[in-house]
Amino acid sequence: MLPYDIEGQIHLKRFLFWKINDTFINIYNIEKHSNIIDSYSTYTLNYMDCQSTPFLIITTHIYYMDYNILKQIIIDQEDFQNKKPLGFLRNKIQNIKPLLKNPSIIVITGHRRVGKSTLLLQIAKEFYKDNYYYLDFSEPMFKKLEIEDYNTILEIFYKEVGEKTTFFFDEIQGKPEWNLFVNKLKERGNKCFITGSNADLLSKEISTYLTGRHIDIEIYPFSYKEIIEYKNISITPKTTQKNAILLNNFDNYLEQGGFPEVIIFNQKEILKEIYKDIIQKDVILRWDIKNISELEDLAFYLLSHTTNLFNYNSLKKHTQIKDAKTIKQYINNLCKTYMFFELSQFEYSLNKQKKRDKKIYCIDNGFITNVGYGFSIGKPRYLENLVFIELKRKNKEIYFYKDENHLETDFLIVENRKVKEAYQVCYSFEKIETEEREINGLLSALTKYKLKEGKIITYNTEKTIEKDNKIIKIIPAYKWLLE
After folding, report:
1. Which residues pair with 193 in a beta bridge?
2. Are residues 194 and 264 in the same domain?
3. CB of 180 closer than 8 Å to CB of 211
4. Largest CA distance in the chain
């Protein structure tokens, strides 16, 4: 009987020898058997006795990774995830419930360390109880994983866990032919949920590898509402004392942001580590950037000038980079990591829109204050960045507005190329000229797009204004974030 394993794996292009009955046998021409459907692990081995044994054909099972090692990994992970506490239940999980009966593959994407893996496990336990398969492909032993191992994994699942139809794969991207494996599972009527590690393939790119129907779920750092819920702070009754507590927590959120490790463990220094990983691993290594200092300087400049208007040519004056196309490519790379977001001026003509200046926003205020020159930006821009990210979190299509008289509105919400909402952000109305400028900018957008009302998000000013037959609701940010 031939052994199935040599040092845990067999490679197709390697000539192998076994000693059988004191005779060395040369095993060669290992081929996948053409009539074995959907089998990665069964091969035909043609081998010949070097002396007198006639030509023979033997069919056997060959495992690239040791079967028993794969089995132990699956059993250990099953035990680990069963014992692992769910942690704080993310609000995003409510967006998943309507999709459970949808046959599409669910792709959970987002920035590094915002909680993608935790959300994946929460979905599994919250909606499927014990009726699912789970596998974390970040397991170090899976570095040796080959496409032939997928069928072995399924075989072990069926034998050790029982037959089920829902699969949860964490950090599967970057594994060989993972997309074919997941697509095949879907075609067979299974439900699949996947996440991916930016170290191998950026989350924003994962959906491009799936040929079947899929739905992307973007996850962001904790929202202010999630932080209040995590801290078990009641928002009622709306007393003066309660408002003071909520405002104090908002002050912290405005500057430290909402990354889970910062909120739960109060580890603000972790943001520098995350930022470093994004720049070095997800951009420089990912796209083989040669001039590292150029990229680093540009990223730091954007971080320290969040919410500013810019164009690619203007950035040449503020960086070492002399080519606008290179700047555009670098920013595109940075935006793919979810670290930054470009915001365009709204125009019905796409050609005009492309020629306009843009604005830049950052995923989390914690990066601005702990990594960039946050003090040069100040709280008014912290607030604008925070409002932008909240709108992104709500899956809004966002633009900014600027008229021929240079009156501006910070955010327009567009649906099917039609403007539906308008938001202005103003930290304080202490100066009369500031109030007039912000109101007039909003009125310009309301009038042009025939909207009846708009909102101005402030630090702590609350009132309603009626002007030019328009209603302007001025709302404290901490109240708007809890709506």
Report:
1. 106, 168
2. no
3. no
4. 102
Do β-strands 309-310 and 358-362 pair in parallel, antiparallel, or remain unpaired? antiparallel
Count of domains in the chain?
3
Q: Identify whether residues 414 and 272 lie together within a single domain.
A: yes
Length of the chain: 483
Where in the sequence is the domain holding 472, given as residue range(s)?
Answer: 250-288+333-480
Question: How far apart, in whole angstroms, are the C-alpha atoms of residue 363 and residue 342?
Answer: 11
Helix (H, G, I), strand (E, B) or coil at 339: coil
* CATH number for position 190: 3.40.50.300
What average pLDDT values come out for the chain (483 residues) when binned by 10 residues? 32 36 39 32 38 39 75 94 91 93 93 95 94 95 90 94 95 90 94 81 78 87 98 93 96 97 93 96 94 96 96 93 96 95 95 94 97 84 98 97 96 97 96 95 98 98 96 98 96
pTM of structure: 0.85
Q: Report the candidate in 472, 449, 451, 447 with the shortest Cα–Cα distance to residue 462.
A: 472
Q: Give ∠ CA 381-385-387 in degrees, rounded to 5.
A: 115
The tally of CA atoms less than 13 A away on the side-chain side of residue 41 is 19
Residues 269 and 361 in one domain: yes
Contacts of 44 (CB under 8 A, 6+ apart): 30, 31, 32, 33, 57, 58, 59
420 & 459 share domain: yes
Q: Are residues 26 and 106 in the same domain?
A: no
- Dihedral sign for Cα atoms in the order 278, 279, 281, 287: positive
Torsion of CA 184, 185, 187, 193, to 10 degrees: -120
- Whether residue 81 is found in the same domain as residue 137: yes
Burial 177-198 (b: 16+ CB within 10 A, else e): ebbebbbebbeeebbbbbbbbb
